[in-house]
Write a structure and sequence with these properties.
With 603 residues, the protein is of the alpha+beta class. The chain contains 26 helices and 14 strands. It has four domains: 123 residues, no CATH class; 93 residues, no CATH class; 189 residues, no CATH class; 155 residues, no CATH class.
Length: 603
């Protein structure tokens, strides 16, 4: 449940830094370290020196549901104390202020080129009292050894207090406890300026307060995640994996290490899983766990009106217990391995060729539950029908978490003859004129048709070898035009781009073959290809791509286009197991094309 309570108050900066120093305020382990640059740090310090607001910070009381592994803010020394509050937003500001104002440790930062540097910060006393000066110019950044050099020549040396006083530069790490420094400087030439400096600048730091939004201990994990994402605009976006990692770490389990070991095994052994994300792995584990909860509840009471739901939204992932993760993690990994083998059978071999990465989640979940039951010919045929309906019906573009849970239950039941045909199959449809708008790999259907042609045994134009073998030998295979683009544009009248750039005029061709094709007319490049392959074999190769041979050899684009579109529709129809309504007018030269925004997965 999405629970959250909060209060707001203003707290003295010195008190907040004291909490950091004592360890009563720490970071949750999901906070990643990152470094502000030197210019931004100087601007922050200058803003405080004139009491400008620098924004609120967000904290979370410990001891509630949202329990995380913690660590001190960088620069603070671990003392074994358990924190009272966790800093959710404001990490960079508090780290910068703690290191620059309360410790002798130089601040870890970056220069304008991104190079890591360590710096101490000073205020130029005279400039800070000049009302016409730029406030950022008041703050001076010096190297860790407090010596500024230029071409090996020492330009500024601040290694002793006497040198600081002589230069009129006040060290910011003394500003919250300035008495000793002021006493030492009282008899110096800058002594007359100290009273005004104390009133105008030192007092600004001593009385500076920050608004603190404090979340109560009853705040749920999901609420922490949502609130963090809303307010933490300057840092790294918090994802559910980071939150679960920190939650499990509080129980002594290192989820990140466990995932990395599995990721390495999966990506090394199964290249088609090369883009697998940790959130996807958690989704599968959560689907399996919630499916098991539901089955156990129904076994206990078959008449239960509202059994536990099968789901893998963020709420359910955050509700996954460590015990459940450990119970289902091996099954989840096995499911992805089985999914990889299934994709190979569908002639999808590389991560970039997976039509919908999102569909990996229900596919792995289904296969993890079916195990050997999913290996029979009949099961594989049913799974393939569901898979291709999802791809070609473009069913995984939005609201996918709901689809995941529905498909897991319906497909498993259907394969086991315990339920009707899944909704994804019943609802999927492919419009014939969609072929005209499939132009790039952004579309799942585009990549799906490419895989179907590979499954049909498409071969290389120049060598006659099966493209599948060339893929495994890591030959460069990509989707290119059958009637070359240059040729299409040189025709009079020119062939419209909406036609020649559609998938109807594209197929998988090796780089070497495509170079030989160039921008020539098909009749001419086929003649060149026959220097390497005999005519009959080449005709068979073209047919393996569902290309009408006679029309290609006679450079008849429009007859080619019409016939190949029909061949592709038959291929899609067979994969989906559904009839596709034809629209004869759509494929005519002057037929209108309804523009279609390709479906791009959002991650």
């Amino acid at each position: 449940m999405l629970n959250a309570s909060f209060s707001t108050d203003k707290v003295l900066l010195s008190d907040l830094l004291g909490q950091v120093d004592s360890g009563t305020m720490q970071l949750p382990d999901f906070q990643r370290s990152w470094v502000w640059d030197d210019a931004r740090i100087r601007s922050l310090l200058a803003s405080i020196s004139v009491s400008f607001p620098i924004g609120a910070i967000l904290t979370l009381a410990t001891g509630g549901e949202a329990s995380f592994r913690t660590r001190p803010i960088e620069g603070a020394q671990p003392n074994g104390k358990l924190p009272d509050t966790l800093l959710l937003d404001g990490q960079q500001r508090m780290t910068t202020l703690y290191q620059s104002l309360l410790t002798d440790t130089p601040v870890h930062t970056r220069d304008v080129r991104g190079k890591i540097i360590d710096r101490h910060y000073y205020i130029d006393i005279q400039r800070s009292l000049d009302q016409d000066g730029e406030r950022d110019d008041w703050i001076l950044s010096v190297p860790a050894d407090k010596v500024v050099r230029q071409l090996q020549e020492v330009r500024l040396d601040l290694r002793t207090r006497e040198m600081e006083i002589e230069q009129g530069l006040f060290p910011l790490n003394q500003i919250l406890d300035p008495v000793d420094w002021i006493v030492a400087a009282s008899g110096s030439p800058i002594g007359e300026q100290l009273k005004e400096f104390n009133s105008a600048v030192i007092r600004s730091f001593a009385t500076y307060s920050l608004p603190v939004i404090a979340l109560g201990k009853d705040t749920s994990k999901e609420a922490v995640c949502l609130v963090f994402e809303k307010v933490n605009t300057g840092g790294v976006t918090l994802n559910v994996f980071e939150l679960v990692t920190a939650s499990f770490a509080a129980e002594g389990f290192q989820l990140r290490e466990d995932w990395h070991a599995r990721e390495e095994r999966l990506e090394r052994g199964y290249p088609v899983l090369g883009d697998l994300e940790p959130d996807q792995f958690l989704q599968v584990a959560t689907l399996l766990a919630t499916y098991d909860r539901r089955q156990q509840a129904l076994e206990t009471d078959p008449s239960l009106e509202r059994p536990p739901a099968v789901a893998c939204r963020r709420r359910e992932i955050l509700g996954l217990t460590l015990e459940e993760y450990q119970r289902w993690r091996d099954d989840a990994e096995d499911g992805f391995i089985r999914a990889s083998k299934f994709l190979h059978d569908q002639y999808v071999f590389a991560a970039r060729d997976v039509p919908y990465r999102t569909q990996l989640v229900p596919l792995a979940s289904i296969l993890a539950l079916l195990k050997r039951d999913g290996e029979t010919q009949r099961s594989q045929e049913r799974l393939a029908k569901w898979f291709w309906c999802g791809v070609l019906g473009e069913m995984y573009g939005s609201a996918v978490e709901t689809t995941f849970a529905r498909d897991l239950q319906e497909v498993v039941a259907w394969v086991r003859d315990d339920g009707p045909e899944p909704s994804t199959i019943r609802d999927a449809a492919f419009q014939a004129n969609r072929l005209l708008t499939l132009r790039t790999r952004n579309s799942a259907a585009y990549k799906g048709i490419h895989a179907l042609l590979m499954r049909e045994g498409s071969r290389d134009f120049r060598t006659g070898r099966h493209l599948q073998k060339l893929v495994f030998e890591e030959e460069s295979i990509d989707i290119h035009h059958v009637f070359p683009r240059d040729w299409c544009e040189r025709r009079r009248p020119a062939i419209p781009r909406q036609r020649y750039d559609s998938i109807v005029n594209k197929t998988a061709i090796s780089t070497h073959t495509n170079i030989k094709i160039g921008g020539r007319a098909p009749s001419k490049y086929l003649f060149r290809l026959e220097e390497d392959i005999d005519r009959n074999t080449l005709d068979n190769v073209l047919e393996s791509h569902k290309i009408p041979v006679e029309e290609l050899r006679s450079d008849d684009f429009w007859m080619f286009f019409d016939k190949r579109a029909e061949e592709l529709l038959r291929l899609i129809q067979a994969a989906m197991g559904k009839e596709i309504a034809r629209d004869p007018e759509a494929f005519k030269p002057d037929g209108e094309i309804e523009e279609y925004e390709d479906d791009i997965e959002q991650w």
